[in-house]
Amino acid sequence: VKEVANLSLVSSACDVVSAAYASSKESHPYLRSVCDTAEKRVQSVTEATASCVQPVLATLEPHVAAASEYAAKGLDKLGEKLPLLPRPAEQILSDTKELLSSRVAEVKEAVSS
């Protein structure tokens, strides 16, 4: 999970969503109230669940480690096949806009000639 979260594309997308969430909370007082309540409830449920789940996680640790290693290898292979993953979302969007703009210009040129 940490490796996926550290990918530039995922990280920058999370940053964009987080900024939009924070901006929405600041702009709308009612939404802020609902979100704050939801955040507190999720935090308390997470804390309560963590103590109950800890013994199970300790038992499963060898299996989780093996799955993590397997997932890391799969992620490395995926990164080789998808060169977009290590790039930030903003760069991908910018490159896509440039590509589309260039294609539209080519189509305009072809139509006009």
Task: Give structural notes.
- It is built from four helices and no strands.
- The longest helix has 53 residues.
- 90% of the residues lie in helices and 0% in strands.
- The mean pLDDT is 86.
- The chain is flat.
- The protein folds into two domains: 82 residues, no CATH class; 30 residues.
- Helix 2 packs antiparallel against helix 3.
- By secondary structure, it is mostly helical.
- InterPro entries: Perilipin (IPR004279).
- This is PLIN3 protein.
- It comes from Motacilla alba.
- It is found in: Lipid droplet.
- It holds the Pfam family Perilipin.
What's the layout of helices and strands?
Elements: H1 2-6, H2 8-27, H3 29-81, H4 89-112
Helix pairs in contact: 2-3
Task: For the structure shown, list the relevant keywords.
mainly alpha; single chain; Perilipin; PLIN3 protein; 4 helices; 113 residues; lipid droplet; 2 domains
Major beta sheet, specifics?
none
Structurally, the number of domains stands at: 2
Coarse shape:
flat
Strand content: under 5%
Rg over alpha carbons? 22 Å
Structural category: mainly alpha
The helix count comes to 4
The helix/strand series, from N terminus to C terminus, equals HHHH
Q: What is the CA–CA distance across the termini? A: 52 Å
Ranges where pLDDT stays below 50 over 5 or more residues in a row are: none
Count of distinct strands = 0
Share of residues in helices:
over 70%
Could you report the average pLDDT, rounded to the nearest whole number? Answer: 86
